[in-house]
Structures are given as structure tokens and as C-alpha cells.
Design a protein that fits this description.
This protein is mainly alpha-helical. It is built from nine helices and two strands; from the N terminus they run H-H-H-H-E-H-E-H-H-H-H. A two-stranded antiparallel ribbon has the order 1-2. Helix 1 crosses helix 2 and helix 7 (about 150-160) packs antiparallel against helix 8 (about 165-170). It is globular, with a radius of gyration of 17 Å.
Length: about 200
């Protein structure tokens, strides 16, 4: 997205936040491709056999975003960060329902290791590094959020939204160096929690 359209998106998001329903309709086609990219990345990290499709995940996230009537949108980065939170909730709810329906079924495996790769192709091949249960990751992120909300949001932005480290730092309003340190600490903390 070029700078002009990024500004257009931000302006439309702000108008949407003030209750302009036409802004919602106008912003949808401008953000749709990026939402699909986020959804596709999130689903690929979950591995094969997922029953949700990219389009369904995007549409469900959009419905939840559109329901945020009193949301104050400050930037497109913030919008995509919130979209990532919505997608995370949808995926976790879906995983919990699948596990409940299949009592004793294997947990949905995801990886944190692929997030560190700057090479997008290797991150989307479904790397088997650090396989973890999506529901266990969500539970661990909730515990991390109780201790350090910023680190939990950083993990969410990097893992679920697929934001680069500079984008995640911008969304959090912190320096890139601080984001890098917090990412290393959060990953180590999560690994320890998930190995229990």
C-alpha cells in the first residue's frame, strides 16, 4: 500500500470511528487484501487440516471489527493490530470447539519459531519448529498479559497479525530495540510456560 492510500485508510478509519457508516464501506476494499494476508498467514501457521478457510476468517474478523461501534481508530497499524486480536480469538474459539467436539483429539499445533524468520516464504511453509497447542498458547498469552500486557500484545502482533518487528514496535509506540528485547523475553517466557 502506498503512502497516499495509507493516509486514505487512516482518514477513513477515523471517520468510521466517529460513526460514519459510509467510511466503513469505503475502507473495506482498501484493507481486504491485507486482512486476507493476515488470515492466510495465521492459518498456515496452524498447519494442514484446518477447517476454517481464509475468506471465512476474514469475514468473521470483519464482522467483529464492524461491531466495534465505539472504537477510536488512530491508524491503519492499530486497525490491523486489532484485526489480529479478532483473528486470534476466532482461531482459539474454533480450536476449543473442535477439541470439545472430539474429546481427546490432538491439539491444534502452531509454531512460534517461524515468526522470527524474515524470509516470508519459509514462515509460510508450515515450519515444524517449536510445535505448540494453539489453546495452550492462548492460555499462556493470557497469563503473560496479566504480568506484562505490552509483551503479550507484541507476541500477538508478531504471531497472529504477522507484523514485522518495526510495524509491531510502531503499533506499541516503542523503539525497535525495545521491541526486540521484549520479543526475546516474551518468547523465552512462553517457551517455559508451554513446557510445563
Amino acid at each position: 500500500m502506498n503512502a497516499h492510500s495509507a493516509n486514505d485508510v487512516t482518514d477513513l478509519l477515523r471517520a468510521w470511528g466517529t460513526g460514519d457508516s459510509q467510511a466503513s464501506a469505503a475502507v473495506a476494499p482498501l484493507v481486504y487484501d491485507e486482512l486476507r494476508r493476515q488470515a492466510d498467514l495465521a492459518l498456515r501457521r496452524e498447519g494442514d487440516g484446518h477447517t476454517l478457510q481464509t475468506t471465512a476468517l476474514v469475514h468473521e474478523a470483519w464482522l467483529r471489527l464492524d461491531a466495534q461501534r465505539d472504537m477510536r481508530w488512530d491508524s491503519r497499524t492499530q486497525f490491523f493490530a486489532v484485526a489480529a486480536q479478532m483473528m486470534r480469538r476466532i482461531l482459539v474459539d474454533h480450536a476449543r470447539r473442535r477439541q470439545a467436539a472430539k474429546r481427546g483429539a490432538a491439539p491444534t499445533q502452531v509454531t512460534l519459531g517461524a515468526v522470527d524468520r524474515e524470509d516470508q516464504a519459509s514462515a509460510t511453509r508450515g515450519s515444524s519448529l517449536d510445535p505448540i497447542d494453539l489453546v495452550a498458547l492462548d492460555d499462556a498469552l493470557a497469563r503473560l498479559a496479566a504480568l506484562d500486557p505490552q509483551k503479550a500484545r507484541l507476541v500477538e502482533f508478531r504471531y497472529f497479525a504477522g507484523l514485522s518487528m518495526p510495524e509491531a514496535a510502531e503499533a506499541l509506540g516503542i523503539s525497535l530495540a525495545t521491541a526486540g528485547r521484549q520479543w526475546a523475553i516474551a518468547r523465552a517466557w512462553l517457551r517455559r510456560e508451554l513446557e510445563r
